[in-house]
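Customer escalation, tier 2.

The customer says the design service returned an amino acid string that "doesn't look like it belongs to this structure." They asked us to rerun it and document both sides in this ticket. The original structure tokens are below, unchanged.
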């Protein structure tokens, strides 16, 4: 499924914490998700307490521009939403250069680029322009700043949510809605930024399609997709669904996946969780196969985003992040579709998909038998002429059904691919020779 065309629809929208552009972006996401995700929108009322935060206001901009005495417009929201500092206060007055200069923002590194600046919680106002434009402005003139904007407190802060379950659905031992889940998050905000994070959004859409087209094995976790404004969106969602948190067993935050940089994995807060080990294994093997580079970083190292919520205090669901940061165009209007590459987006989908497939389908096999199993008598012997590696590992696998190792652990210890070992272990489970226990801290799905 091509992802860059979806990104190009999201890119030009005025996507902030809550705005018409954000609503349109969430609509586009829903239009491109598979029907199996059962995509829904949730709306929260500004000012509502969400843990230590509050739901932010909706921001509506009617017009915003900065002009000189002769009517020449230096910065115009209608031409480029980045010209306006996000969530700027309404203003309408003339001023001299000394009063104006503190409200102008530019990027020294990219003198031709317009930076993206936001003042979400420290209310102020300002305009962004290129350094070259800033340097050419006369210092002896008067300037008019016009920002016709409103902060709306009616319900209007929205997040998008979709869930894809295994097919057939895993049995739910504790009733409807009790199934364990992974959460895949990306942020929908950042106006006119292609890589940050429209790229993460379309990567999540691509992953959802992969899981819908080839469902996870029965007994696997469900996968929940969250599309929302950065940080406060995830806080708002989890604060309204605290009952969901115990069912979340792992997460991935996706961002900045479309540029040519190496894919980086930021470890979970735990650092050595099973999710970290699986993610590292997938990234390493992908790199070996494709002869590409990758990086491993500590939890919440720059850039840090919603993994700080999912894996943060009071939630602490193991969550990694995948990104291709740093890149030079970051937070400027040079972060546009020209730096996005379809093969990079698809590689990120490949990696995220394999992490999800392994982590969500993994379990601890616990034997119900005594003594060595009569393999050929139970149809479990593997002919060495058909699969030499698995034949040599049969006894090693069988000796590791003591309830202290996951299928992934066993695969690593015997030196075989996870899916080869899981397929073989599943034969024992189907015959009642092992029971499937949850990986530590999880609720059984079988």
């Amino acid at each position: 499924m091509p992802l860059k065309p979806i990104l190009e629809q999201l890119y030009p929208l005025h996507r902030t914490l809550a705005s018409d552009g954000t609503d349109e972006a969430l609509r586009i996401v829903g239009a491109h998700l598979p029907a199996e995700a059962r995509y829904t929108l949730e709306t929260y009322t500004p000012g509502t307490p969400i843990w230590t935060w509050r739901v932010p206001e909706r921001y509506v901009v009617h017009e915003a521009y900065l002009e000189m005495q002769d009517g020449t417009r230096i910065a115009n929201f209608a031409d480029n939403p980045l010209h306006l500092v996000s969530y700027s206060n309404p203003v309408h007055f003339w001023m001299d250069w000394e009063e104006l200069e503190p409200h102008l923002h530019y990027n020294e590194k990219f003198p031709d680029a317009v930076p993206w600046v936001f003042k979400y919680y420290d209310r102020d106002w300002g305009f962004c322009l290129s350094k070259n434009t800033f340097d050419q402005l006369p210092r002896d003139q008067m300037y008019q700043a016009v920002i016709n904007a409103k902060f709306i407190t009616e319900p209007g802060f929205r997040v998008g949510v979709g869930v894809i379950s295994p097919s057939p659905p895993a049995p739910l031992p504790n009733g409807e809605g009790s199934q364990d889940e992974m959460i895949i998050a990306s942020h929908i905000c950042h106006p006119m930024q292609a890589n940050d994070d429209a790229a993460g959004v379309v990567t999540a859409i691509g992953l959802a399609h992969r899981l819908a087209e080839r469902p996870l094995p029965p007994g696997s976790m469900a996968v929940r997709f969250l599309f929302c404004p950065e940080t406060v969106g995830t806080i708002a969602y989890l604060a309204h669904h605290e009952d969901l948190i115990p069912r979340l067993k792992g997460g991935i935050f996706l961002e900045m996946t479309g540029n040519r940089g190496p894919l980086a994995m930021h470890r979970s807060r735990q650092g050595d969780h099973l999710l970290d080990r699986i993610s590292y294994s997938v990234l390493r093997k992908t790199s070996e196969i494709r002869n590409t580079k990758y990086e491993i970083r500590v939890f919440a190292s720059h850039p840090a985003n919603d993994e700080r919520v999912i894996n943060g205090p009071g939630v602490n669901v193991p969550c990694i992040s995948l990104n291709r940061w740093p890149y030079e165009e970051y937070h400027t209007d040079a972060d546009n579709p020209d730096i996005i590459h379809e093969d990079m987006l698809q590689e990120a989908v490949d990696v995220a998909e394999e992490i999800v497939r392994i982590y969500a389908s993994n379990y601890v096999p616990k034997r119900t038998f005594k003594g060595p199993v009569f393999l050929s008598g139970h149809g479990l012997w593997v002919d060495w002429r058909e699969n030499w590696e698995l034949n040599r590992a049969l006894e090693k696998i069988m000796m590791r059904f003591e309830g202290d190792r996951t299928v992934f652990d066993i695969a690593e210890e015997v030196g075989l691919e996870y899916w080869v070992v899981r397929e073989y272990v599943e034969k024992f489970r189907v015959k009642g020779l092992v029971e499937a226990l949850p990986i530590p801290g999880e609720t059984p799905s079988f």
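Tier 2 assessment: The sequence is consistent with the input. The radius of gyration is 25 Å. Residues 38 and 162 are 6 Å apart (CA to CA). Sent an explanation to the customer and offered a walkthrough call.
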